[in-house]
Amino acid sequence: MKLWFRFEKIDKMIYISYIDLLQVLARGIKRAGVSISLSEGFNPQPKISFAHPLPLGVSSSTDFGELELNDSELESNLNLDELRQRINYNLPYGFNILDFKKPALFKPPKLMSLVEATSYEIECSNLVSKEELRRLLDDFRNKDKVTMQKKKKKSGKIVEKDIKPMIYDLEVNETSLIGTFQSGSNGNLRPDVFIRLFFQDENSIEKVHCSRTGLYFFDKNKELVTLWNWDELN
């Protein structure tokens, strides 16, 4: 049985890598007495994945993942809130399951394949004043293009790509930047790349606090909708 889950990653857990975080969750679920389905092959792994990996040092107040249970007894008497509490009791501080849901579709697609945008709050008070931040945003908006360098997988060639079309929304709230960026298989703007280009400072990522606030897909009207509601609209 497949389940989707919503979680937060804060405090010291922001320095745990994607792979290590999967292992932390798998151990917590095992200690909670819940059986997870395993992949096939010579090195079977728990069927757990996250919708969109986070760069190291970036926290998240709303993130998503999926797992597959292999427990017929639990499935027949499934209480999702009780399951959440049991697993959270066995997870370290800073990694917390917020919700579970059973997708409406019998065979839902992988969450990772559905992500089309991510939103972030970038707190900048240790780097600039709110007046300076607004000036920087105006300057950024007035630029014709802002390019990043990207290495092609097949050829290894370094190419330049304009990131401005990958920014769906960008505003200032006091000393924070609030941005929504393109993500997923069609293009991905990492928050750390954006921060360095916005401030024109390679060390700026170390002076701000960046938190992911949402993951989204485009509905039939080309409006961004939280990934959590994908199964209800498809």
TrEMBL record:
NCBIfam families to which the protein is assigned, alphabetical: sam_1_link_chp
The organism of origin for this protein: Natranaerobius trueperi
Protein name: DUF2344 domain-containing protein
Tree of life domain: Bacteria
DUF2344 domain mapped to chain residues: 2-191
InterPro entries named in the record: DUF2344
